[in-house]
Amino acid sequence: MDRFSEIKRSAQAMLPELVTVRRDLHKYAETGWLEMRTSSLVARRLTDLGYKVLVGEDVCLKEARMGVPEETVLEANYARAQAQGGDPAFLPFTRGGMTGVIGILECGEGPTVAMRFDIDALGVFEAEEAEHRPSAEGFASVNRGFMHACGHDGHTAIGLGVAKILMDMKDRLHGTVKLIFQPAEEGVRGANSIVEKGHLDGVDYFLGNHISGRSSKTGDGLIIPGIYSSLATTKFDVVYRGKAAHAGAAPHLGKNALLAAASAVVNLYAIPRHGEGASLINVGTLHAGSGRNVVADEAKMELEIRGANTQINEYMTDYAIKILENTAQMFGCSCEIKKMGAAEALCSDKPLADRVAGICHELDLSPVELNVNGGSEDISYMMNRVTSQGGQSVFFRTLTHMAGPGHSRTYDFDEQVLSNAVQVFCAMTLELLG
Amino acid sequence: MDRFSEIKRSAQAMLPELVTVRRDLHKYAETGWLEMRTSSLVARRLTDLGYKVLVGEDVCLKEARMGVPEETVLEANYARAQAQGGDPAFLPFTRGGMTGVIGILECGEGPTVAMRFDIDALGVFEAEEAEHRPSAEGFASVNRGFMHACGHDGHTAIGLGVAKILMDMKDRLHGTVKLIFQPAEEGVRGANSIVEKGHLDGVDYFLGNHISGRSSKTGDGLIIPGIYSSLATTKFDVVYRGKAAHAGAAPHLGKNALLAAASAVVNLYAIPRHGEGASLINVGTLHAGSGRNVVADEAKMELEIRGANTQINEYMTDYAIKILENTAQMFGCSCEIKKMGAAEALCSDKPLADRVAGICHELDLSPVELNVNGGSEDISYMMNRVTSQGGQSVFFRTLTHMAGPGHSRTYDFDEQVLSNAVQVFCAMTLELLG
Amino acid sequence: MDRFSEIKRSAQAMLPELVTVRRDLHKYAETGWLEMRTSSLVARRLTDLGYKVLVGEDVCLKEARMGVPEETVLEANYARAQAQGGDPAFLPFTRGGMTGVIGILECGEGPTVAMRFDIDALGVFEAEEAEHRPSAEGFASVNRGFMHACGHDGHTAIGLGVAKILMDMKDRLHGTVKLIFQPAEEGVRGANSIVEKGHLDGVDYFLGNHISGRSSKTGDGLIIPGIYSSLATTKFDVVYRGKAAHAGAAPHLGKNALLAAASAVVNLYAIPRHGEGASLINVGTLHAGSGRNVVADEAKMELEIRGANTQINEYMTDYAIKILENTAQMFGCSCEIKKMGAAEALCSDKPLADRVAGICHELDLSPVELNVNGGSEDISYMMNRVTSQGGQSVFFRTLTHMAGPGHSRTYDFDEQVLSNAVQVFCAMTLELLG
Amino acid sequence: MDRFSEIKRSAQAMLPELVTVRRDLHKYAETGWLEMRTSSLVARRLTDLGYKVLVGEDVCLKEARMGVPEETVLEANYARAQAQGGDPAFLPFTRGGMTGVIGILECGEGPTVAMRFDIDALGVFEAEEAEHRPSAEGFASVNRGFMHACGHDGHTAIGLGVAKILMDMKDRLHGTVKLIFQPAEEGVRGANSIVEKGHLDGVDYFLGNHISGRSSKTGDGLIIPGIYSSLATTKFDVVYRGKAAHAGAAPHLGKNALLAAASAVVNLYAIPRHGEGASLINVGTLHAGSGRNVVADEAKMELEIRGANTQINEYMTDYAIKILENTAQMFGCSCEIKKMGAAEALCSDKPLADRVAGICHELDLSPVELNVNGGSEDISYMMNRVTSQGGQSVFFRTLTHMAGPGHSRTYDFDEQVLSNAVQVFCAMTLELLG
């Protein structure tokens, strides 16, 4: 444990600072592509620490971003970010939703280690009750309807903590460190645009982390690097447009978008199962029609597809598109399909996972192997790009006690976990570049 | 023309007064069950004229009203009606949506003649452009989102004009006159509750009227008593309630209300046609689900059914209810079906229609026979009750030039029609009770 | 009655002959496109009478025939017709399903009167009970599964009776008589191919007849020329072809034709109603799949569409084809649609119908006006072609007492009706060409 | 290898006899519940060897049999079995479909070992080409439409071979041997009725086997005892009964069974996926309707459900029944659901599988571990009953070269495999009871 003792001490010492940063971000929560204040502050901090910093159009490939809000929303939030203390030097680069930051530390010859920290909040109204600590202690979100209810405020704070320690120990490193602060992970909208920009090319090792709740069987504050796998997914928004008509006098003159959408929904769920693994679809919302006695001229659907692997996800996606397009056509409606997000299936590389497990052991954090299913994460795009080029990837979970479930209005976590995660990232970096 | 010359002169003379009343009602438009100000003013006027007046719970059978707004809406509009000059003596009777007024004039032995004047507005935002006369001349609706876009302001003014003239000539009448100011005709929600209260029992002759647009072939200001027929109809609001679940991890734990609703919609449209006449259904709106990755736990539909006659309408209604209930059940959802409105098929009695045509001729108004289809009117409940008891009914249209189509934000009509309609109602009353 | 007395006497005198012909045809019943024996005997008789006779490819336009049986069936029935006494001179022309005969009688200058007599039987197994007169009296069908259960044996006999009388009185006629013996009326498959061959071009008057059951209100043996109207219709056979796969191991490798067909069926019934009249669809049969645990690779449907008029029928047909094609496509199946029959809407011309009514009066047959709906007849193609060129058409029913309902195995009729029908056809011809 | 050397030598020596038995059974193939000749010959042989033999109603619980053919089929096949040399002493017990045989060998104190050999053929027409060895060598099925295309002829021969060797070595055994010759495995119809009769109660070890094709990676004639798992399944026949009506005149008087079935099919495929493993459904066949212009009054479906485990299979089954019943109800049809077969999920016990693997090694047969999915086997009922009472079960595959795929008309296998399988059964018995 000698080799990591300094990392451990530093990470524990910086806990108050990690908490301060996390609470500031929590208070000014920003959702996907609106993380303008957050991005500007991260860029400022990395610059001050001495990193080479990429911002604005150098981070995400502009046209590869998915689910970007409308212009008016982007502009309103730019004004908000200015008013809430965004860094004036970096804020302009984020205008129009060009959020995200990459910090690079070059330490001579050696492999490249990249780490991903996601920075966006969720569209959730935060609890105002006194039992909710952020409310009680004054750091609840002031941006009504935006809330860090999935721990990305913590992830960002961890990333900045890691940045500090690695800079301090840069003389012991041989190679390159790349810290990626990713926007718009919620809805799996942002990661691929960073991959498409080429930032994962040439990366040898890739590390990702998510704060997660501990169960009764796992101790408080422990870290669990697991071989975590999740489903591939694609998210679509669909609009059917038909033609209104009086339902009593002339239904034959209408093009019934509601009927078309209903027929599509039933057939979407009826897509034959894939025999080789999970093949899921959900039409989560459907809104259609303007009045009881009018043939509905518009129907909107939000849907998502998931597959045990990328191939199954594509089978479902292709089938769904055929159903959506043909059903619209047979009812005389137009069909607009917009991709709102996507993630590939994800699987950590066993050798790298084993090294994380070993490190946990050395750090006195109890490692536990996990094989969790059902969720989706667009970090998968990053991991798969690295793996496809011969590198290795791992995605692990840092366990903590939680006050409410993820994505809920009462979500909160024990901040001790911040220091633990910083230790794992830094120790792994030393392991790989030391 | 001798016998009607006084009626004709009086009706023409009162045109300015009819216009004033109509414009006041237009300005303070009130939708179904919220016609509190309107009802109080009608009751005041009838009382002042010397009618026996029924208000509040004496008009509509409380529990037979359909599509009554929620309590908070009722209360807010009661306050609004107070603020907008409702008559303080009669307003309290309307609280809670007990709107509508009946004026009775008893003139000794003889038959009973009842007339229906509907008083409610539509949920339409009125045009604000200068070309729209109500806006230009200052009587556009001040109640945003409520608009008299179907002429019921005119119908009410006509009813009060008729009340004045009949009272003036009461010595020439032998029998009873019943003037029914009906709430909530839009959505066919009100008429049946008046019928259920018994007000049509014992009526020998029943007259109804609707202001309608003239076509190029029919002159301005003419009256057309036609044998008008319309479809029977039933309106339902349906709520499916299921159970939310994570669409990726545990779709089997959900009860998918959106899928159930979609399946129901397709099957509703697939109800086998009736071989004996029009059998229509329309699901006008469908709103379901809360988020893309959540199994939808609620779906709401607004739908309507129509049939060429009451029997066909019942065939469709029974089938639809079976589909709605069984589909909910098979997807594990609950099903709440609420009747929001209903009308029977409607057909004027030929002998009475012929008498109206004769009267028009005497009044120098060009009568035209009509056979119009496709719409629905809950005056049908009143007509059918009268007919089923051996009486006669007629529903006619008073033609006028229109500025915009019915139910549109630019609707307006040539107010000359008001005087014409008053003449027909009064002359027919004299014909029947003279 | 002077002018028709000879016709009346002749028709009554030939009743035994009409009965003999009818019973011979009944015994050797032949279904659509297989009326080879029948056609050859009709051609022989018309030739012997002195008519100019068209047979084989001169009657129906070969490629416009619908629903023609397969080659092997045609050949087998050709052999059967030979064995059952088909006329050797004319039989060869019918080979391959080129059935139908036209007899022409030219009587100098004057208009052209065409008459249609349909000659085919149904695919019904005739009753063998003693109460069934054809069985009791030895003229039940010897062709098992083929039966004249709709009176076309009678129609053919009537046509030959008419041919005899008209030839006898040809000196009193001025113009042209065209007797059309139409194949394949059942399934509405034959008439249009005669129209397409041009035989209705230049026809001034067109007469058609169907033997029908009398009700209690109409006397036995009477003739009812009515303004009969029926629905337009189109008949399709549809085959979906997909791909089989093991339902447990690899459902995703299949293309499920059964699922596609089921989805199409539901959507076909859900085609929005036409607001202007009856719009019907029926998928009468559906056969799909080869085994429980195999993804079905084929589905076959027999369906029909009907509309109150040709335009509505087209609305339904276009919609149905879109649904059938798009649904197949979205499930990865091919779609073959074959038109098996069609008829247009049909309506007699009032002036000609009135003349038929007058004639009935003169003949002491009680005429009754009828307006019957729901069925379909491909004589409509002939009538509409004549009308569209300025001619007049009428379709009437000759009433009789019936032993069983049409299309049933116990169908039979009172043969007195044969003579009555002959009278009407001949008297009308004299009326028009006399 | 000392302890098994006698078994190995005997099994190899009896290969010609095994081949003879297999070919005789192949030639007189009998499908489920019709294995009357087969059962009588097995019972004769076991009796002659000295086993205690159970037949007729002592084998399967009569009312627990699924998918039993109709009485006329049973009788016809009883006559056939008599004509084809069924043993006259035992044949009467099989009448009415009471097939199946159990042979018991009691060797004093000790555990009970049960083995399952399934005996039924498939409804397949056997290939007649010369390349098909059974045809070339004269043992192709003489029962047209019945064929041993899944190796059960081999299984039966193996069972009789095992019976012979175990009887020869009974002095070395301590405990009880139970040889179960199961009828109606195809369609998973027979096993449960044996379990319900109680024959698996008190069994300590249970062995089952299936002949399977070797791949290029596994040598010819080898035996692979694997931990084989398969899906739980339920098979249903469903009949919807509605009411016929004329599709043009009175569709509203019909109860459309075809439409109801189509709607059910789409909804069955749309049953929400289970999040915890495979959840499959297949409607393999659908036959509905009698004619194009008649509302279909009957629809028949054959369907099957599968689940990764019994719980998921039940989730699907419960859902399917709700859909089937409610859909029938909403279209006014009756619904008859008949269970035609069922199997539970199946998994070998690791300790017993390891012992089989060890035995293979000793026998010089190369063992390979397998984890195959997708099929279903009703041996699962037997295995699960044994396991649930504290016993152990294993199901293994004996590999061989195959001429055509399972269930195909060209199926055949290298008969060397028969001897190999006999060795494994006998060696395992000695291992367990020695």
Structural features, described:
Four copies of one chain form a homotetramer. The first copy, chain A, is α+β, with helices and mostly antiparallel strands and 434 residues long. Helix content of chain A is 36%, strand content 22%. Chain A is globular and about 85 Å long. The mean pLDDT of chain A is 92. Chains in contact: A-B, A-C, A-D, B-C, B-D, C-D. At the B-C interface, α9 of B face α9 of C. β9 of chain A pairs antiparallel with β9 (279-288) of chain B, so a sheet runs across the interface.
Jot down its keywords.
homotetramer; 434 residues; alpha+beta; seven-stranded mixed sheet; four-stranded antiparallel sheet; 15 strands; 36% helix
Instruction: Give the low-confidence spans of chain A.
Output: none
Distance between the ends of chain A? 14 Å
Strand order of the largest sheet of chain A: 1-2-4-3-5-13-6
Helix content of chain A: 25-40%
Mean pLDDT of chain A comes to 92
Break the fold down into its secondary structure elements and pairings.
The structure is a homotetramer of 434-residue chains.
Chain A: H1 5-13, H2 15-27, H3 36-49, E1 52-54, H4 71-83, H5 91-94, E2 101-107, E3 112-118, H6 133-136, H7 152-168, E4 175-182, H8 191-196, E5 205-213, E6 223-224, E7 229-230, E8 232-241, H9 257-269, E9 279-288, E10 298-307, H10 310-330, E11 334-343, E12 346-347, H11 350-362, H12 379-388, E13 392-400, E14 402-404, E15 412-413, H13 416-433
Parallel strand pairs in A: 3-4, 3-5, 5-13
Antiparallel strand pairs in A: 1-2, 2-4, 6-13, 7-12, 8-10, 8-11, 9-10, 14-15
